[in-house]
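Here is one chain, start to finish.
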Amino acid sequence: MLSLLPEVSKAEGRVAQTTNVVIGGTVVNDSTDEWLVLDKKVNSYPTVRRFTAIGTGGDEFVQAMVVAVESVIQESIPKGRVSQKVSSRGKYVSVNIGPIRVVSSEQVQAVYNAMKRDDRMKYFL
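Its structure:
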């Protein structure tokens, strides 16, 4: 059964800066191979998807996440495909990028790796 995102967010054992797969749990310890196996079971490519990153740094963080995605997909992301929401206490910002066309699970993983290079990022979905 699929869980609602707020339930997943509160799940014990959630690890920062890991690939959080909402439908199946969390892949921990930067296990790229484990993530790729799971991804190939549940996705087919090419496809469109959204990338969400949660971090600190406001608008500068948002722009850094856009640049990270653009650096991998080699296309500019229209402003209408980027949204952001500041947390209730103002400490974090969530940036949602998409829908974006991706051609392979390796490209998706490359996007996540590009996003993780920014130390301000705390979680991504």
